[in-house]
Description:
Distance between the termini: 49 Å
CATH architecture of the largest domain: 3-Layer(aba) Sandwich
Number of helices: 11
Mean pLDDT: 95
Helix content: 25-40%
Radius of gyration: 19 Å
Bound molecules: pyridoxal-5'-phosphate, zinc ion
Strand order of the largest sheet: 4-5-13-10-11-12
Shape: globular
CATH topology of the largest domain: Rossmann fold
Structural class: alpha/beta
Amino acid sequence: MYLKEVVCDNCGFGCDPGTPVTACPDCGSPLKLRYDFDRIEQAVNREELSDSGTERFREFLPLDDPPASLGEGATPVVGSSSLGGDLPGELYFKLEFVNPTGSFKDRGTVMTVSKACEWEVGAVADDSSGNAGASLAGYSAMAGLDCTVYVPASASGEKIVQVKSYGAELKEVPGPRERATDKIKEDTSGTDTYYASHNLSPYFPEGLKTIAYELSEEFGWNPPEHVVVPVGGGALLVGIHRGFRDLARLDWIDRIPRLHGVQVESCNPVVRAFENSWDRTRPTESKPTIAEGVHISNPERGKEILEAIRSTGGRALGVTESEVKEALRKLARKEGLFSEPTSAVPVAGLKRLSDKGAIGSGERVVIPITGSGLKDVEAWKDS
Ligand SMILES: Cc1ncc(COP(=O)(O)O)c(C=O)c1O
Ligand SMILES: [Zn+2]
């Protein structure tokens, strides 16, 4: 393994990779991982990659042992057959819903569950009413870990059924979503249960770097000019950014794509911070949205999200509920892609990006389709 240390940029805390950590124990900020890039450079060559999925890029990942894998990653990229026609450039979709539990989260979960196995922690927990909980439950079942998922008492639907089907324990916490986070922190603090938080653990976004590695390779090491993603807690965007940055550092690619983050107007802390030139997000009032995966009113990784967007020349933008619904329908009817509403958020943002002149002629745009339509059948009721 080429991981050297786990560090906190905020307060200077550091520890070695053998220590189970979620957030910084001193200040509560998200932690970062530092690798030995000189050794990575000697160990790996882009012409000689072997295996597939998570194993293909193992030198870039924080694992000693083979991953606790269910076969995640190596997802297909398909060219748009219709919606791209409205753009001056070319549109592609990366089909993340083909991952083992039906969403991109599996790329992050394989990291947190592998670390839990390496640390010989017998139990994991996360707070999520959606895909991250279902993913953790599935990977825990495979790895033989006890899993508890904390959800707001109001949560319902296919994702909750999926969590229970894998045999995970469901803890319902009354009150708003944030109460589930407070409760899990209280319950796991000082215990042997690893808080495998997709919004806080430094390991989760590391697995999402593989989207950037795969895209770079799939486009012949000449990555697309734009990647457009939905932003909730930000692991997806931050992970993709870290991945492209790794490859640029090794000169495997000579340019990092512009990373655009799309939110819904009903809950848009990143857009507000971006437009006001704040360097971090602030708690935002939110309204219910059909795009439940981006309903996070103050993402823990707000600062890193904004840095990723700004440093790549990307934009943060918001879309309306009706634009999301229309994009969801078009994805199914014109592209044959059955996704959940959150996955349609960047598709809805595309027209706005194009109208603002952000996409140049001939430029290539990739949108990951993050979750399956089977995850939220209710959203299709009136379609
Ligand atoms: C389907 C789907 N897409 C996108 C996101 C947003 O990802 P992130 O929280 O990493 O920003 C989520 C988060 O739950 C999701 O479930
Ligand atoms: Zn700290």
